[in-house]
Amino acid sequence: MEQLYVFGTGNAAVTHCYNTCFAIRDGEEYFMVDAGGGNGILRILEDMQVPLANIHHIFVTHEHNDHILGMVWMVRMIATDMLKGKYEGTLTIYCHRELIDTIKTLCQLTIQKKFCHLFDDRILFAEVTDGCTKNILDHEVTFFDILSTKAKQFGFAFRLNDGQKLVCAGDEPVNPGRFAYLEGAHWLLTEAFCLYGDRDRFNPYEKHHSTVKDAAVLAEANHVPNLVLWHTEDKTIATRKEMYTAEGQIYYHGRLFVPDDGEVIQLG
Asked: Does this model's pTM top 0.85?
């Protein structure tokens, strides 16, 4: 059974948790999604006992700093292990075309050339396009443009070993034009910037985000039996799990997860 490793759960401005990023574990290998905004990802991987040597596939959703800057550290540390003979095979980074140049440029400006010389040799870049399907860790993964009005961003649908469908919707509300990807979904991973009751305090709609209520209503309407909420504010982190769960369960009757950083969720 696959597992969802939750590395971070916060939005871009959090200081009490890490930015939202995660991995799907199958056996000893991990399909990592985003890397957050800094080298805090290295501590989280260490704390969760996730070896760099077991990460050979990383998907970067979009260019915002809370999703992409941690990639510089992932490239640096994995490249270091490659040069030391501690990392076997290649690392493949999946992203849309414009992000390939962005990631390469960020690395070229901030880390040593010896690491960047591994680009297109042992550190590979795989372009994703709207509706394309790739085989990752022997899983069918279909990528889709979430139709963001801020920065070009992709989500994906991941077919689990038992046939269930997991959908990562990115860090914005699911665009109605993308509802087709929710058909038959068993898991929905989506943002919930704050409680609906706190919308005047955190102004999620001004930032193109949603509330717990909005995400719960969406999952209920699309008959998704498992819902994971993250990419939240952290001002209420002491009560976040309890309060978000309580609000969500008013509108949603499936299994609702409001994880903290470092949690592992069984995908089955």
From this structure: yes
